[in-house]
Amino acid sequence: MADITRRFGWRHLRSAPTAHIRHHKRGKLTHDGQGLSFWYRSLSAALSEVPVDDRELAMAFHARTADFQDVTVQATVTYRISDPAEAANRLDFSVDPDTGSWRGAPLEQIATLLTETAQQHTLDVLARTPLAAALVDGVASVRERVATGLAAEPRLPATGIDVVAVRVVAIRPEAEVERALRTPAREQIQQEADRATYERRAVAVERERAIAENELASQIELARREEQLVDQRGTNARREAEEKAAADGVRTEAEAARKVRLARAEAEAARETGGARAEAQAAWLRVHGEVDPATLHALAATRLAENLPRIESLTLSPDVLTGLLAKLGRPDGGVAA
According to the UniProt entry, which residue ranges have a biased composition of type Basic and acidic residues (predicted)? Predict the structure, then answer.
């Protein structure tokens, strides 16, 4: 919308670079162009403002496919007013000289024209297309048909309108039909997911079985080695016992031999000692046989005296002492028994 200010009964208009201004004064065109700025009187001025920038027109409408299914088509048409003079002559782009606002609704007229034209071509395409094909290839076919139809529409160039681009955003069926169409794919996906789950479980079971087999094999190998260890320990114990028995036998034999030698030595010593004693006794007897009896008596008394207890003191009466002395003083020198 143009920017209009007031000064002393005059009006000043300043337009945007994307707006084409046409100023008529008393039926004559005085200003015509984009981005204009000029003074005018409102009572004698007739102004038109035509936008020349690219404009996006979003549209959504219903259509029916060949199998009588309702679908919603969402599309966007980009257009431009390439001939502002022709557009101003065909549509009401006049603005209020005091406010600068449009007196009519020219852009809504253009939107209606483009929407109805695009809808007509869309319905023509989808009416011959089944729902499945429309959902798969419908976007491209509808876009191509709408672009061709708008390019061939005679009213658009006559109004000074050029279609820049056509985009079909989506073709969607009703919610119930869409859910029904999604069901097979979802079921297939679920089946694939279940199959993957089963395969994963099968792999897990197989791995668990392999692990169990490995554990069992390890236990069997461990038991076998324990058996070998027990056998080896028994062999070692038996060998140790045999070696110990052999050593004990050797030690016993050595001890017996030692005792035999000791006994023999002791017997030999006893014989030697006995012989020596016998010889000594014989010599003693020979000596005593050759000695005088009085001497033997003295030796016997001496030996007896050695074995008698010690007498500290002895008291003899005169009678006993006299008799003893008488006996000791015998002419034969003997001692009474």
Answer: 237-252
